[in-house]
Specification:
The chain is α/β, with parallel strands linked by helices. It has 26 helices and 19 strands. α17 packs across α18 and α18 crosses α20. The relative contact order is 0.09.
Length: about 600
């Protein structure tokens, strides 16, 4: 196993559980694997596939994922192919005969195709193992139910002697039980790995408006120096406007949403995978079918509707295990919008509850990772050190007077105003809304002038969270005092608020080349990470350009040629011979022979 791991995949060590899982499969057991996105599920069946006699049949619901996996395997010198509706007939004929001659180690196939081929091709070839990827699609409980998966029970019925490994990143108990039952797994070994993704930093920015979000995003991208990222937005319109804003600042960005034609969407996805565009601004559907490992940041421009959705989306960052950044913008207007969606949806209670849990995450003043892990049923008893709460614990102050000012403004406007108008009254802004209600004549008009608008928005969110008022969604989102709110306003009940965090000054990376041999050294790993903290940015950039060139020559996505993690290893170790190059973690024999010389040539220029 260890040999194959190094020879084909270039890795020296297994990740937790991989070795045990592979061992069980090799001894013929059925296995169920639950691992988070990026946890390393593929190797769990790819290594047995290489080691066992015959062909492993991998059932996968997404054609683009199949393509990705097959390209990745071919790039490591493993014989693999896919059968799906994207192939032309000639190609399918070639693939089928390769299967019958036993030339393939892995065959990827869509579920509908599989069912059609069961009595013919699959019966006539020697199948070593069935791997059911995205196995949660078989369950009605899950969030991605696919009717084609419902027939996969046929596998066990028709091939009782062939082991099955089912893999998913969805961990809840009902889904898990459903998978076992429907696939008719016989007494499977179940492996559940931790869902923690410590390399993802977590941050929430509260109460930002469009302009401030724009600035914060530009700062983040500047810090990331050509790295790729995804920005998730609630509406098509927002994806367009954010993409336009970025393009206006010279950043290559595209929008991705359901209003575009399939061709346009396909092009955007393809451009992103091949590092031709840096940022995709997308509604939720984006990212399902891609394994791109070098996504370095995921931004939620709007609040997601559930923690499941949020975790899946941020999970698309940092699959290679390198530090990656996630930022969530949280505003009251999103909360209102999503509450409306939830209330109007068929499953009102469930969706409101999911939203509340998301809200709790966004408003938390304890370690955010602990909240996430808890949500997924994992207890963790220490703070993570890689979220904004851990890095910058909230400071509190007596906010009674501030709260009274806001509550008084609400009451004097007869509780007929929404949060933005309250902010305008407090700040003394004569907006049309204010003029319409003649609120400029109120005693409270302008009493909060000294506090910036964004701080007011933040305080109002905190007051909502503390239960001082409620939002009447069906009544123009007007704010209505609660009992607690009245106690604060009339009886001086104390309110504690958290100090609003000020933006840190962005640390721009210098792109200037320093002269001679000294290259600028950029820390890229947070303190909490055990990895070494420094490498040369110029060498990294040079290797990244080389990777892009090699990938373009072959029509592969760059991350298939080599992950960012491997580029970083090369920067740290600086191998100057092909042999040394082959020793680097992530370089297998095939890549050593294919790319060694090119990379070593570039590295030599830096040593
Ligand atoms: P998943 O399918 O669970 O989302 P993948 O199988 O795509 O995850 O693996 C995620 C990344 O981790 C890939 O880039 C893969 O090459 C890498 N990886 C997997 N196993 C190891 C390992 N033992 N050592 C180093 N990297 C690994
Ligand atoms: Zn934390």
């Amino acid at each position: 196993m260890q040999n194959i791991l190094k020879r084909y995949f270039g890795y020296s060590f297994f990740r937790p559980l991989q070795e045990e899982i592979i061992g069980k499969i090799l001894s013929g057991h059925d296995v169920l694997v639950l691992m988070p996105t990026g946890g390393g599920k593929s190797l769990c069946y790819q290594i047995p596939a290489i080691m066992m006699d015959g062909t492993t049949v991998v059932i996968s619901p997404l054609i683009s994922l199949m393509k990705d996996q097959v390209e990745g395997l071919l790039a490591n010198g493993v014989k693999a192919a896919a059968l799906n509706s994207m192939n032309d007939e000639a190609e399918n004929v070639r693939v089928r005969s390769a299967c019958l001659r036993g030339e393939l180690k892995l065959l990827y196939i869509s579920p509908e195709r599989l069912i059609g081929e069961l009595p013919y091709l699959i019966k006539d070839m020697k199948v070593s193992l069935f791997a059911v990827d995205e196995a949660h699609c078989i369950s009605q409980w899950g969030h991605d139910f696919r009717p084609e998966y419902a027939q996969l029970g046929l596998l066990k019925q028709n091939f009782p002697q062939v082991p099955i490994v089912a893999l998913t990143a969805t961990a809840d108990r009902l889904t898990r039980e459903d998978i076992q039952k429907q696939l008719k797994l016989s007494d499977p070994d179940v492996f559940i790995s931790s869902f923690d993704r410590p390399n993802l930093s977590l941050e929430v920015k509260r109460g930002y408006q469009k302009k401030e979000k724009g600035r914060a995003i530009l700062d983040l991208i500047a810090r990331h120096h050509d790295d790729c990222g995804i920005i998730y937005c609630l509406s098509k319109k927002t994806t367009d406007s954010v993409a336009d804003m970025l393009c206006g600042h010279g950043i290559t960005a595209s929008a991705y949403h359901a209003g575009l034609s399939p061709e346009e969407r396909e092009k955007t996805q393809d451009d992103f995978i091949h590092d031709r565009i840096q940022v995709v601004c997308a509604t939720v559907a984006f990212g399902m079918g891609i394994d791109k490992s070098n996504v370095r940041f995921v931004i939620h421009y709007n609040l997601p509707k559930s923690i499941e959705a949020f975790y899946q989306e941020i999970g698309r960052a940092g699959r290679d295990g390198l530090p990656s950044e996630t930022v969530l913008f949280y505003s009251m207007s999103d909360l209102i919008q999503l509450s409306k969606f939830a209330l109007e949806s068929g499953q009102r209670e469930i969706n409101m509850e999911k939203l509340r849990r998301m809200q709790e995450y966004a408003e938390s003043d304890v370690c955010r990772r602990r909240i996430l892990l808890n949500y997924f049923g994992e207890q963790s008893d220490c703070d993570c050190g890689n979220c904004d709460v851990c890095k910058n614990p909230p400071q509190r102050f007596d906010g009674t007077i501030l709260a009274q000012k806001a509550l008084s403004a609400i009451v004097r406007a007869d509780q007929q105003v929404s949060a933005p108008t309250v902010t305008d009254i407090l700040r003394g802004n004569l907006t049309p809304e204010v003029a319409k209600g003649r609120y400029e004549t109120l005693k409270t008009f302008g009493v909060g002038r000294e506090v910036p608008g964004r701080d007011w928005r933040d305080y109002l969110m905190q007051m909502l969270q503390n239960g001082l008022f409620e939002i009447a969604y069906e009544e123009g989102n007007h704010l209505k005092l609660t009992d607690i709110g009245r106690q604060v306003l009339y009886r001086g009940r104390k309110v504690t608020l958290a100090v609003v965090r000020k933006e840190e000054q962005p640390r721009k990376r210098s792109r200037k080349l320093t002269s001679g041999r000294t290259s600028s050294v950029v820390p890229v790993v947070p303190k909490s990470s055990p990895d070494k903290a420094v490498y040369s940015q110029e060498l990294f950039d040079a290797l990244r350009s080389l990777r892009k060139r090699l990938a373009d020559d072959q029509g592969f996505p760059p991350y298939i040629v080599m992950s960012d993690k491997v580029l970083q290893n090369l920067c740290e170790l600086r191998p100057v011979t092909v042999e040394e190059f082959g020793q680097v973690n992530g370089i297998g024999d095939f890549k050593k022979n294919k790319y060694g010389k090119d990379f070593v040539d570039v590295i030599r220029q830096f040593t």
